[in-house]
Task: structure prediction
Amino acid sequence: MAENQGTTIVWGVDTTNMTGFTAAASGGYTFTGADMNYEADKVEVKNASGEVTTAYYYNQRVTLSLKCYPSGSSGSATSLPVAGEMVTVTSGDAAINGDWICESASKARSNEGVTEFDISLISYGNVTPS
Result:
């Protein structure tokens, strides 16, 4: 167990499970990374001198990239969502916890390491995953 001396920092990954898709293996994942980004499309309006006078942001969305490996008795090298499927993420981080849409999923296998999954998810403000 890690001990902290000095400035307190947030350490580790809070994501604990993925479910809701066809090949899901509940409890069959160990998460090693979660990268979340807030994004939007942008239009810049310029004046006659070419200076930006207005920036218009629309189509807000959140993307989430999860890194994990299959583990435990329910873990499987085929337990990946496919693009377009809903993925329910369980996390202690309220911004990550909930339903997402799978954008892409890949796996990497090696004779010298664990099978690793890289899963890209997206959430749109006006689209409810199903």
In short: The chain has a mean pLDDT of 93. The chain is about 0% helix and 55% strand.
